[in-house]
Amino acid sequence: MTGTKTPARNAPPERTRFKLEGRSVALDRRVHAARGDLADMALAGTLFSAHYARAVAFTCVAPGAPILSAATPSAEAVSELLRGETFHALDVMTDWAWGFCGHDGYVGYIRRDALDLFETPTHRISIHGAPLFSAPDIKASIADYWPIGALFSGEADDGFIACAEGYIHLRHTAPVDAHPTDWVAVAERYLGQPYVWGGRGHRGIDCSGLVQVALGQYGMAVPRDTDLQCEGIGNPIDSEMALTRGDLIFFPGHVGIMTDARTLLHANAHWMAVVAEPLANVVARLAGDHAQPIIARRRIGA
Predict the structure, then answer these.
(1) pLDDT in tens, 81-119
(2) Is pTM beyond 0.85 here?
(3) Where are the domains of the chain?
(4) Per-residue confidence at 253, pLDDT binned at 50, 70, 90?
(5) Would 39-117 and 183-299 be classified into the same CATH topology?
(6) Is the confidence at residue 201, as pLDDT, over 90?
(7) Which of 6, 64, 147, 252 is the most exposed place for a label (fewest CB within 10 A)?
(8) 123-175: in CATH 2.40.70
(9) How far is CA 287 from CA 252, 257, 291, 294, 299, in A?
(10) CA dihedral 80, 86, 90, 91 (to 10 degrees)
(11) Across the strands, what pairs with 298?
């Protein structure tokens, strides 16, 4: 019998399919959102997963919230979001959301109550610990303190910027699109802040976090971790060349910023703080554990 084949009654419906081009590849799970049961839809066709999801953008509304390696308060903090930064959620649970940070793609878990509807920021906090007033009055009660680099949306109101949570004094803010000309001066504002693994300035900061937030306020987006920064920031400079302000010095698992030809600014676990000290002292301190303490020198704009 010839003619068009009739589908069998109760046959399953046609399924939407995609083709995986080539082999499934192993990606860097720090910056590619994929776990055993779920992956970012952007990875479809590159990485096989049982399920994919499209990211939904949220805004961090806590002054600072850690990005954790697992959905438990005791998990390692791998990074941090500041108020106003974006989190792209792929899986939203009762207490946690899993996804990636908007500014650098870093993957992890964040408390669900630290997130709210997406907002487009208009201003940035320009000092450490800017007080959040309950009214546009310097004598009003203070509800909280926001860290330098925090973002928010608001409108001018008699010398303050009014936002959803309260009022920030105008002198403690800068327009979000206004960038300083000296990014090292931004980094120097963090002098004395405690060293905190995974921190980006809320209650502490780590070495690569210092580089990232300072360059971010300067208007330059850079990766989160030292190895990614070593591969992706600026250009290498010869060891014979004199160092200048803004040069980045990379050590095994560590990075610092030159403030001049001899002084290194860095957040470090030795002093447990952001300090400026002679580069020669840092090299001498590391020489006992590393035959070659300095593994790379890089210059932005070289």
Answers:
(1) 999 999 999 999 999 999 999 999 999 999 999 999 999
(2) yes
(3) 39-117, 123-175, 183-299
(4) very high
(5) no
(6) yes
(7) 6
(8) no
(9) 11, 19, 6, 9, 23
(10) 60
(11) 236, 248
Q: Which residues contact 193 (CB under 8 A, 6 or more apart)?
A: 128, 201, 204, 205, 267, 273, 274
Segment 272-291, tens digit of pLDDT: 999 999 999 999 999 999 99
User: Looking up tokens 């303190």, which residue turns up?
Assistant: 145
The helix/strand/coil state of 147 is coil
Which is the CATH superfamily of the domain at 183-299? endopeptidase domain like (from Nostoc punctiforme) (3.90.1720.10)
Q: What is the pLDDT of residue 45?
A: 86
Q: Residue 280, exposed/middle/buried by CB under 10 A (0-12, 13-18, 19+)?
A: exposed
CB atoms within 10 A of CB 198: 20
The DSSP call for residue 242 is P
